[in-house]
Design brief:
This protein is α/β, with parallel strands linked by helices. Helices cover 33% and strands 25% of the residues. Helix 5 packs across helix 6 and helix 6 runs parallel beside helix 7.
Length: 260
């Protein structure tokens, strides 16, 4: 079943000098229930813009966005807010936690808008979620006292606490070292699979991208299926001693992708 579907989506903004910047130039993408999709692309290629449109935080300039078959443009803002709150969980590169609040407070926050059982049991539900991400012993710690990896686990717990059907991760490992990033990604994959949520991960790290089942590449606002095997080969050729994370754009030629 189609969860979220973009048809020929463009996004343009008018800059201070009155010129127009075309950020997305006709993107079509369908994400099904339980799908795991990765999107790689250089900095400035429009990845965050695309993710915000998928998550209904931002509207396209032209084209359509449909969530579970309903066209988003036609919705009133109250309905849209509820739809997003009930269905979408975001994980960002910079964690975006409230620094002076505890891990538990941060994870409970989205449940403040929930109804019924979820609202009344929010403390227990948040504590259970923190337990699930391996932070059961840290629930009362202030967010800014936690390590980067721990903060991202809290952010994952917060994104998942309302059991969203769609998890959107924008460079979730971008602020973490390789090992911490890898364990955070396994956790994200695991919990998404466990809850049968769809996961869309945006990254410039090919190892992170390779975890998904379907791979895309965004290049100057155009989305195309990506062949990660070829991208890996190109990166390996470019860097004989693989020392760090393999990133798109380090190769002398852009990694090629095949259509299909
Ligand atoms: N609201 C905006 N106003 C002006 N420029 C923007 C705006 N949003 C994004 N951009 C520009 O559009 C391009 C793509 O942005 P973004 O989607 O954040 O790319 P990415 O996440 O791939 O780095 C960048 O050059 C960025 O500076
Ligand atoms: Mg970005």
């Amino acid at each position: 079943m189609s969860l979220v579907r973009l048809d020929d989506v463009t996004k343009s903004v008018t800059l201070a000098d009155d010129s127009t910047l075309e950020i997305l130039r006709g993107v079509s993408l369908e994400v099904g229930a339980g799908d795991h999709v990765s999107i790689v692309g250089r900095s400035g290629s429009g990845k965050s813009t695309l993710l915000n449109i998928l998550g209904m935080l931002d509207a396209p300039t032209t084209g359509t966005v449909a969530f579970e078959g309903a066209e988003v443009r036609r919705m009133r803002s109250g309905r849209l807010d509820r739809l997003r709150g009930n269905n979408v969980g975001f994980v960002f590169q910079q964690f975006n936690l409230l620094p002076g609040r505890t891990a538990l407070d941060n994870v409970m926050m989205p449940l403040g808008h929930a109804r019924g059982r979820m609202f009344w049991n929010r403390r227990q539900i948040a504590a259970d979620m923190l337990e699930r991400v391996g932070l059961g012993h840290r629930i009362d710690q202030l967010a800014d006292r936690l390590s980067g990896g721990e903060q991202q686990r809290v952010a994952i717990a917060r994104a998942l606490v309302r059991r969203p059907v769609l998890i959107l991760a924008d460079e979730p490992t971008g602020a973490l070292d390789i090992d911490t990033g890898a364990s955070v990604m396994s956790l994200l994959d695991e919990v998404a699979t466990e809850t049968e949520a769809a996961l869309v991960t945006i990254t410039h790290d090919l190892h992170v991208a390779a975890r998904a089942r379907r791979h895309y590449r965004l290049d100057a606002g155009l989305l195309a299926p990506a062949d990660l095997t070829r991208a890996f080969e190109a990166s390996t050729l470019a860097e004989p001693v693989p020392a760090g994370p393999v990133t798109v754009g380090m190769s002398p030629e852009p990694a090629e992708e095949v259509a299909g």
